[in-house]
Amino acid sequence: MTRLTPMTTRPLQMSRRALLLASGAGLAASALPFGPLRAQPAGNLAMCVSPEPNAMCAAFNTASPVTVVSGKMLEGLLNYDFDVSPTPALATAWEIAEDGLSIRFELRQGVTWHDGQPFTSADVQYSIMEILKQHHPRGRSTLASVTAVETPDDHTAILRLSQPAPALMYALAGWESPMLPKHVYEGTDVQTNPANNAPIGTGPFVFGQWERGSHIILTANPNYWGEDEPKLERLVIRIITDPSARAAALDAGELHLAGDGPIPVNQVQRFVDSPDFQVETRGTEMNNSLDMIHTNLRNEHLAKLEVRQALMHAMNREQMSSVVYYGLAEMLTGPIPQTLPNFFTADVPTYAYDPARANALLDEAGFPAGADGMRFGLRLIAPAVGDTYDRMGQFLRQNFRDVGIDLEIIIADIPTFIRAVFADYDYDLTMYPGSVTADPTIGSQRFWWSKAASPGTPFVNSTGYESAEMDQVLEAAAVEPNPETRRDLFHRFQQIAMTDLPILPLARPIYVTIAAANVVNFVPGPDGIRAPYGSLAFT
User: Fold this and answer.
1) Cα separation of 84 and 90, whole Å?
2) The whole model's pTM is what?
3) Judging by DSSP bridges, how do beta strands 329-331 and 503-509 pair with one another?
4) CATH class of this structure's domain 8-51+212-275+529-538
C-alpha cells in the first residue's frame, strides 16, 4: 500500500468505460428504481452514502451520513479552505473583537430559503440560540460561551460571548452548524419538525425524494446565490451498504463518486492504478474521524483502571494496522491525531503490546482466570458502517481471548446502536468513528467532559467518566485565547486521558474518496464529500 500517495489523480483518459460515463450510458436503468439518468448525462451525478442516514438535518444529528447529505441543502455562516481558514458562505465578512467577547457577521444579501422566504439575521439568531446551543451534539460545548445573538438589521448578526471561544470560528460550516429557517421551526417541536427529514435550506441543492433503503434525490436550487452554481441538475445519493457492492457499482459506472472510505481497503490500490478513476486522500481535515473503544465504566470489570490498562496492553496495534486497516491508518498515541500538530503531543503514558503485563493487571484487579483460562466476558457493540468493524471485532476477540476475556461482537444498525449506547447505556465496550474536527474543543471535548453526558443525545460522553481535573482542563482550553497556553492545556488533556483511559485510542483511518475520471471538484475543500457541492461537475 505504500504506492498510495496523499493525492493521486491522472489526466482524463477517455477509455471505453469513461466514454460510457460521459454519455450517461454507465447508469443502468435497472440500477435505480426511479428510472435511468441517461437523459441528462451532464447534469445528473450518482454518489453513495453508507449507512443510510436516519435524518437529513445535521443540526440534531452529527452522524457522518447525515452530515454528508445535510451539507448539500443546509449552509453555515462560513466555508473553509484547505488551510482550515474561514471563507465566505452565508456570511461575507466577520470581525472578532479584540477582547474576544463578540463576533460580528455581515450576512450575504439576496439569499432565499428553498421555500422563497428571505434569509435574515433573525434566522441566525434563532438557529444558534434555540437549536444549535440546545440540541446539537457538539453545540452544547462549542456554543457554550454564546449568550446572545444581536440583530441590528436584517444583514448583521453579532454574537455576544461570556468569554472567548477560540474554537467557534472552526465550527460554522453548513454540515457542522447549519442555519435553519426560523419561520419553519418557531413554535414547533424542533426535534420532530417534518423539515428535519425534508430540509428547507439555502444550499445549492433542494430536497427532492428519500426512498428509504434505496436512494435520496436532491435537485438543483434554481435561486441559489452562488454564481453559475450548482453545476449539476440532480444529485442522486444511493444507499449501498456493502463495500464490495460499492466497488462493483463504481466499476460498472453506476456510481460516479464515493467517499469516506467507501470500498474494502484491500481494493484501494487497484483504483489508484486505474486510469478510469481518481483517488483522493484529502478532504478530512475538518473531520479527523478516529476509531476508539469507549468503555462503560458502569460495568464492574471496566470500572477498574487495571482492567482498562490490561485491554490496552492486550491489543497488538502494530498487527492491527496491517490486518484491520491494510496500512491505511495512523495508529493513535492518544485522543488527538498527528494531523492536528498545534494540539498533538506524544508525551503521554504508553501501553505497549504485552499480554503478560495484561494478565498481571487482570490478576491485580481481582479477576483470576478460571479452569478454562477465561476471566470474564464483555460485549462490544459497533455500528454497521462497512467492513472495518467486522474485521476489528474479530481481531480484538482473539487479542482479548489471549488474556482470558471473552468478547462478544454485536454489529447493529444505526438506530439500534444509538439507542443502546447513548440512551440505554446497554453496552460494555463500543467503537465508532468519532470526529475530532479541526479543533479538540469542537470534536474531542464531548467524549471526556462530564457535562456533555446527556441520555439520548448521540455521540457524546456515554462512558460515565467524570474527572474534576479533566473538566477543568477542557473548560479552560475552550476559552483560552493564547495559542501556546491553549496548546499546553490540550497536552495535559491527552495525558489525563491516557492515564484514566475511559476511552482506548485505536487509529485514525485514512479515508479515500473515489471519483470517475471525468468528475471535477469532488474534494473542493477540507470537508470533502460534506461540502455543499455547488461546483461539483463533469468535465
Assistant:
1) 17
2) 0.78
3) antiparallel
4) alpha beta
